[in-house]
Amino acid sequence: MEPSTATVAATKPVPEPSPVTSKPATAVSSRLLAALKPPPRGEDYTILQALVSVDMLLLFTATVFGVGGTLTAIDNMGQIGESLGYPPRSIATFVSLISIWNYLGRVAAGFASEALLARHRLPRPLILAAVLLLTVPGHLLIAFGVPGSLYVASVAIGFCFGAAQPLILASVSELFGLKYYSTLYNFCGTASPVGSYILNVRVAGRMYDQEAARQGAVAAAAGKGVTCIGVRCYRESFLVITAVTVAAAVVTAALAWRTREFYAGDTYAKFKEGN
């Protein structure tokens, strides 16, 4: 007995879908992966390649929390001096010291990092990690309010803030190339205000207001303005800033470890070949 037409149709294998239908999706994913695949360090990255790279993520994170902490100290130096009982003349001196040592830090970091790179092949991110660690004593002096310590803290924080800038920007040009340097320069520039917002507004500002509100019950009853006075105004916030600064230095050291082979070679080789 021959099988019926319905039985033959039921047992007939269903043809697999043509691979042509999956080609467009495969092609798109292949192009995307090719676009995101970074070139060797030191070559010209595209903007997208640089923004999604691990090196940029580490550098951006370190800038947010390392430089953001120094910006918080600089922005609040006048209020810190007032809270710790310094006279207006001393507070003006702190601002001047920060400006002077900011400039000296920029100059010194440029010369020193170039010399250390040329003679000892020290990765520039490693020098940046050392600079961030140098800010830690300044933050701790503010946190514990040691008498007369704001002079030293102003020098340390101003110098380190200035020194960090050329190190960050030089690292960007060396690791990601110069083709899109202006865009990447401005992208890294956004890290500082982001860090300042997080640490200044959300951390230091909020903790200062809480302590001022705690102290302000008597002042409000007397009809006076509320100003936070004492070491407690900034102690907790600068302990937090100290912790995240150390974390930023560790992140920068991780970037130095990742790029150690690149910096062990001649970072200017492609420019010499071009000549």
UniProtKB/TrEMBL annotation:
Region (Disordered): 1-24
Keyword Membrane belongs to the record: yes
Alphabetic keyword roster: Membrane, Transmembrane, Transmembrane helix
InterPro entries given in the database record: MFS_trans_sf, NFD4_C
The keyword Chaperone belongs to this UniProt entry's keyword annotation: no
Residue spans crossing the bilayer: 47-74, 86-104, 125-144, 150-172, 238-257
Membrane topology qualifier: Multi-pass membrane protein
Occurrences of domain NFD4 C-terminal (ranges): 51-264
Superkingdom, taxonomy of origin: Eukaryota
GO cellular component, one term: membrane
Cellular compartments annotated: Membrane
Name of this chain's protein: Protein NUCLEAR FUSION DEFECTIVE 4-like
Organism: Panicum miliaceum (Proso millet)
